[in-house]
Design brief:
about 625 residues, alpha+beta, Beta-galactosidase, Chain A, domain 5, 9-stranded antiparallel beta sheet, 6-stranded antiparallel beta sheet, 15 helices, elongated
Length: about 625
């Protein structure tokens, strides 16, 4: 063995000896560690941890007697070290309990916040009850929902405010004066100058809560270098209405991004979206109630939203909602983020009064001209009448009468066209008989020649009908979405925005349901009689390959029984009343206004001086002639 090798071995032995004396614990340190481990083992025997993170005391040897183990000082010291290691300056705010309830309320809402998380745990609307057991409407199920702000603690990892204890400024805050009442929830650290706080302000009669999220002296602690701070909100809505399927179909996430129109996720199906534009507002919308968040100067881009209906077997809830919204926490001594929470009804007057762009369109009155008609025509009439009349069934009836009278000139034009067609019916039947078995083109040319000769326009009755269609569809959207009709009774209906039932079948008929709607029966019957009267002048369809319109019009009322059986009773009542008024108008016009003898005389006069062919008629005849020539060539 050479000299260098011996020197190396001696150096290695020296290092081992030095390590042993420097790092080997003393006898006192060994004894203290042994006591700590024994204490921990004893604590584990005495304390039982259950899966839902609550701690219960195990039974002692004495029967039916429980005790709360006194924590060993060494155990407490060890646990505190672990908390500090994991949570840093937030360690003192970590709590194992579920938090205490803090109440913020006014005349309209009662919001319950939790000291664990400092945010809303439950919101109840004081003036609305659910359909089933008349309990106050709760906007979401607290046991299945949570709200919090996730942030990056530099050097420690990702945390959420929902896991920490917040100190409240008061246990109960009631806004019952003209001044706004304020509640502050504070997440303190081991440094009194550094904290996170939520400040909530509520007026006496508001559904809107102003909130300010303050990060005080958190620069260098909370990561502000990128959009890592997120407001996370998951909620499951309760089933509050009579028809759960209808409720699911009208529940989703509604939102608006900067400089754009209101939008929403698909209703009654799973849907999600990541927004590439800054978010202005977002709500978890149910049929008649919404819970949402608003920021006047917009949230940063990148929000993620999702909704999906609950499983069919779940009869307690309607929709599952989720939102992750970036918060723009700016570097500096204090970063304040003002936001607003809306917890309230989908009441047009309430939503419109907030002056938030497109927020009133949470109520889906229809797109385009249909929504315009409902907002600027039907809604003002409804508000005016309901201000004087307490019975909403009578309000619907008066709206129906008003609309039908307004449309009377169009209706009269339609009936006049029908009367002309009725006068011409014998001659049209003669043409049909004359060209029976011949080419359909010849019959059409002869019929068009008759119309031109007599000055009758067969399309004159279509335009009035088309002009009425927007109002018919607007009503289809208006009544089921109007919260004022919710749980309002009229005749046998117990809720005008849900289906009425005069007979519960006890079994389900596919596409129909398990009940019989009385207003739908009346609507279908009145539609049948109305179409029979209106189609009495319609010539029998005999052209091969073309549907018989009379048969279709007679089948249509029967189809309405299935389509409208589960629709809003107020809507079916409106259509029924409209049909009855239309039948009355038709009878009066036919018997007392339109003189068919004068119409016949006018037609005979037109025959003597037939009108010149219009460009449209000339083009139509040219097309028919071209088609006829092609048919002959093929033969």
């Amino acid at each position: 063995m050479d000299r260098n090798t011996v020197t190396g071995l001696l150096m290695m032995v020296g290092l081992l000896v030095a390590y042993y004396f420097i790092f080997t614990p003393s006898q006192e340190e060994i004894e203290r560690e042994r006591q700590l481990q024994d204490s921990l083992k004893q604590a584990q025997k005495e304390i039982k941890v259950v899966p839902d993170d609550t701690t219960t005391v195990a039974e002692t040897t004495a029967p039916d007697t429980t005790f709360e183990a006194e924590p060993d000082s060494a155990v407490v010291e060890y646990q505190n070290r672990q908390k500090v290691e994991k949570y840093g300056m937030f360690a003192s705010a970590v709590s194992e309990d579920q938090g205490e309830e803090i109440v913020l309320e006014n005349n309209n809402i009662k919001a319950t916040l939790s000291t664990k998380g400092g945010m809303f745990d439950r919101v109840v609307l004081k003036h609305y009850q659910d359909y089933w057991d008349s309990t106050l409407v709760s906007l979401w199920d607290p046991s299945k929902s949570e709200m919090g702000i996730a942030f990056d603690y530099l050097g420690k990892g990702r945390f959420s405010t929902k896991d920490f204890y917040f100190e409240p400024s008061a246990e109960t805050v009631v806004a019952d004066s003209e001044e706004t009442s304020t509640l502050t929830m504070t997440l303190r650290t081991d440094d009194p100058s550094k904290y996170i706080e939520f400040v909530y302000s509520l007026a006496k009669d508001a559904y809107l809560i102003d909130a300010t999220i303050n990060f005080v002296n958190m620069d260098g602690i909370v990561n502000t270098s990128s959009q890592t701070t997120m407001f996370n909100w998951d909620a499951v809505g309760f089933h509050n209405e009579k028809g759960i399927q209808t409720e699911k179909q009208r529940s989703s996430v509604f939102f608006r991004v900067d400089e754009d129109d209101r939008d929403y996720l698909s209703e009654n199906s799973d849907d999600s979206e990541e927004l590439e534009e800054p978010l202005n507002w977002m709500v978890f919308k149910q049929n008649f109630f919404s819970a949402g968040i608003i920021k006047d100067d917009n949230f940063p881009a990148g929000a993620k939203i999702a909704s999906r209906p609950v499983a069919d077997e779940d009869s307690t809830h309607n929709t599952i909602y989720s939102a992750q919204i970036p918060l723009d926490v700016k570097p500096g001594s204090t970063s304040s983020l003002p936001v607003k929470f809306y917890f309230g009804p989908n009441d047009f007057n309430e939503l419109d009064a907030l002056n938030v762009t497109e927020f009133d369109r949470i109520i889906d009155y229809g797109w385009g001209i249909f929504g315009w008609l409902n907002k600027w025509f039907v809604r003002p009439v409804f508000n005016f009448l309901s201000g004087f009349i307490g019975n909403y069934g009578m309000v619907i009836l008066l709206i129906t009468i008003f609309i039908k009278m307004l449309l009377f000139p169009i209706t009269w034009k339609n009936y006049l066209s029908s009367a002309k067609m009725r006068v011409l019916k014998p001659e049209i039947d003669e043409i049909t008989k004359k060209y029976e078995g011949k080419e359909a083109m010849e019959k059409q040319q002869a019929t068009m020649a008759l119309y031109r000769k007599t000055g009758v326009n067969p399309m004159a009755g279509c335009l009035p009908m088309l002009l009425q269609m927007p109002i018919l569809y607007a009503m289809f959207r208006f009544f089921p979405a109007t919260i004022e009709l919710r749980q309002e009774r009229f005749l046998w209906a117990d809720d005008l925005v849900n289906y009425d039932s005069i007979l519960d079948l006890g079994f389900n008929i596919p596409l129909y349901g398990a009940h019989v709607s009385g207003f739908t029966l009346l609507m279908a019957a009145s539609t049948f009689f109305y179409t029979r009267m209106n189609s009495s002048n319609m010539p029998t369809q005999s052209q091969p390959g073309m549907p018989n319109m009379k048969v279709i019009m007679n089948i249509f009322p029967f189809m309405m029984l299935f389509f409208f059986n589960s629709f809003a009773a107020g809507l079916s009542f409106y259509y029924f009343a409209a049909n009855v008024i239309s039948i009355g108008q038709m009878y009066i016009i036919k018997e007392y206004i339109i003189d068919e003898d004068k119409i016949r005389a006018k037609i005979e006069s037109n025959k003597k001086k037939p009108k010149k062919k219009s460009n449209f008629q000339q083009r139509l005849e040219d097309m028919q002639k071209t088609q006829k020539d092609k048919t002959k060539k093929k033969k």
